[in-house]
Hints:
Blueprint: E1 4-7, E2 10-12, E3 18-24, E4 33-39, E5 46-52, E6 57-59, E7 67-72, E8 77-82, E9 91-99, E10 102-105, E11 109-113
Parallel strand pairs: 2-11
Antiparallel strand pairs: 1-3, 3-8, 4-5, 4-9, 5-6, 7-8, 9-10, 9-11
Amino acid sequence: QVQLVESGGGLVQPGGSLRLSCAASRSINNFKTMGWYRQAPGNQRELVALIISGGRTNYVDSVKGRFTISRDTAKNTVYLQMNSLKPEDTAVYYCNVVQSGANYWGQGTQVTVSS
């Protein structure tokens, strides 16, 4: 199994930045996809950013140009750099990894964007 631990969330003012980290308990070299999802109260969980084996990335339209997903295989970690944050970005953010036919989730980290 793969255990995922998210960190880096917190309270930030509009226009600020945060970097979320997702540390995996084993190598991520053979992943199929790694991604960040988010869920706000009353909303469905939505895909925010996805990185596919081979390096291709996809983003939901609302974060294009502001968020960047990346990975560091040496640290078994995937990151989400979030810039120009808006109150609408407030949510619990979850890391997801698909590997060896299994779907793994982290426990979530809260991001709150408020003045």
